[in-house]
Amino acid sequence: MSSKMTSETRKETMKILFSYLKPHRVYVCLSILMAACTVALTLYLPVIFGYGIDCVVGKGQVDLEGLKGYLLKALIALLLTALTQWLLNQCNMKITYHVTRDIRNDAMEQLEKLPLKYLDSHAYGDIVSRIIADVDQLSDGLLMGFTQFFTGAVTILGTLVFMFTINLWIALLVVCLTPISLLVARFIATRTYSMFQMQSKTRGEETALVQEMIEGGKVTRLFGYEETAMERFRKVNDRLRTYSLKAVFYSSITNPGTRFVNNIVYAAVALSGALTILGGGLSVGELVIFLSYANQYTKPFNEISGVITELQNALACGARIFEILQEEPVSPDAADAKVLTDARGAVDIQGVWFSYTPEQKLIEDFSLQVKPGQRVAIVGPTGCGKTTLINLLMRFYDPQKGQICVDGVDTREMTRESLRSAYGMVLQETWLKSGTILDNIRMGKPDATMEEVLEASKAAHSYEFIRRLPKGFDTVIGEDGGSLSQGQKQLLCITRVMIALPPMLILDEATSSIDTRTELQIQNAFAKLMEGRTSFIVAHRLSTIRNADMILVMKDGHIVEQGTHEELLKQGAFYAKLYNSQFA
User: Fold this and answer.
1) How far apart are CA 272 and CA 286, in angstroms?
2) What are phi and psi of 375, to 5 degrees?
3) 20 to 30 A from 549, CA-CA: which of 208, 255, 400, 523?
4) Which of 452, 544, 464 is nearest to 498 (CA)?
5) Which regions in the chain score pLDDT beneath 70?
6) How far apart are CA 461 and CA 458, in angstroms?
7) pLDDT for 4
8) In whole angstroms, how far apart are CA 261 and each of 157, 295, 299?
9) CATH code, 582
């Protein structure tokens, strides 16, 4: 990434970050006010102690009454400083955690709006890493920024004012030496951003790899892929170590570098102040005040340089999460989009062209007419476009050319929600959420009665295994079904469709994980469910689609054959070869 691009990215990230701070401007103003009060009180303490020292500066010059007054003032100032510091931290924490909450909420909302194309082309682990780890890093950077940046900036301005009022020439000496500290901090900070950016990116890559290996743990061990997986992990982990070490190295030398310059400033003030005392230009107490201010003046440069380093990390992480927020969402439904109600199930596909990538053609000039209530089976070799056709029917993707109509209306002219609610879908890959069995079944129909749930579970043949669970329908299952078998999970997904009774069905290898005996029972249940409903059935086991009204044989994105099971067998062409190959 070029420095120009890096600069533009930083500016854009800061711009978005400020937009998130805007709703919390009251807390930001309070934070600045509390920072100013904290600094003012902190700077007032050296004045009190300096004048207190002048009360006991020499023999016969002790003013105990005056000293008591200064000590009382110091106690009050310390208590007020503690109060304002506490209020400052409260404001900063509210700002930080409200902003990170808003960013995470928007990121999750954006994920719901992003097209499937984005999710299909990005590793899930990397997306998770952005929303969890990167937002945490951004939060840490923000908290440090608000806690130390404001107070540091106000401290620098306040100490300068006080120093100039005490002695002009020593104050000018301090100011002249200050740019050295700034140059050191900037030199280091410019080298940290790219390292933190690479660290954050590699961390996301590592998270994605770990997730991939955990999800495919059984397959990894089955094929003896452990060593290869470990080798891949070691390479990514080594890269993360390299970037992390460089990032930490550059960030860790910031403080020592600026502290070295600050010590030079302190020594110069002490020497020049001592010479001024000999000339009668300063009292001992005033020199103590000056040395205290010189120390307080240089200290924020150490803190700010550390904050800048942390902000570099935060901005690098922020840029990654804001990339998701800036992604082009799915085009919204038109204002005049029609709502599909009481769908009859007439599906008309006219001259559809679609491919996931321009260089790899998939579906070309595809046309199909399905009458209401027809059962259409889609068969063909892997990669021929069966699942892609389902994605187009559900409008997970839109065709590049042509149109798909339901009941005579282009699906792009109706709301996605009404279109998808008209379909019931059971996939080969099951999906269940954390919660009770009952919650998962009612997902398709939240207001379903218990009688409807029981009827659907019996029709889907899931009732028997649910009844044997410790708490029956109230049994809590973990993410993606927890300890349930693959077949049991698929039966629950089928029950979910059974209870919704949608006007159209899509069954994509719906019985692939179920034993043969239960499959025959499910087929009978599906036969009843499909009566009067337009159904699209994707199947590899061709014996399960003999009773389909129409079988579409797809190859390379085209319909190469079409007809009933008996008709296609008589033709003795591609379908007949596919069918007979299962019994060879």
Assistant:
1) 13
2) -105, 115
3) 400
4) 452
5) 1-7, 57-63, 181-182, 185-186, 189-190, 193, 222, 255, 281, 298, 301-306, 309, 510-514, 518, 521, 540-544, 582-584
6) 5
7) 41
8) 19, 12, 11
9) 3.40.50.300
Asked if 153 and 278 sit in the same domain, the reply is yes
**What 3-state class would DSSP assign to 187?**
helix
Q: Which tokens is 562 given?
A: 């079409």
Last residue of a domain, one of 303, 326, 349: 326
Are 305 and 254 in contact by the 8 Å Cβ rule? The answer is: yes
Strand partners, 375: 535
Count of positions (residues) in the chain: 584
What pLDDT, on a 0 to 100 scale, did the predictor assign at position 3?
A: 40
pLDDT of residue 512: 65
What b/e readout covers 229-267, taking b as 16+ CB neighbours within 10 angstroms? beeeeeebeebbeebbebbeebbeebbebbbebbeebbe
Instruction: State whether 280 and 168 are in the same domain.
Output: yes
Query: Crossing angle, helix 3-21 and helix 284-326, to 10 degrees?
Result: 100
Strand partners, 347: 370, 406
User: What integer pLDDT is reported at residue 323 of this predicted model?
Assistant: 87
Same-domain status, 141 and 285:
yes
290: domain CATH number? 1.20.1560.10
pLDDT in tens, 456-479: 888 888 888 898 888 889 988 877
Do residue 360 and residue 229 come from a single domain?
A: no
User: In this predicted structure, what is the pLDDT of residue 13?
Assistant: 83
What range does the domain containing 281 cover?
104-326
> Phi then psi for 537, rounded to 5 degrees?
-120, 120
Instruction: Look up the pTM and report it.
Output: 0.64
Residue 472 belongs to some domain of the structure = no
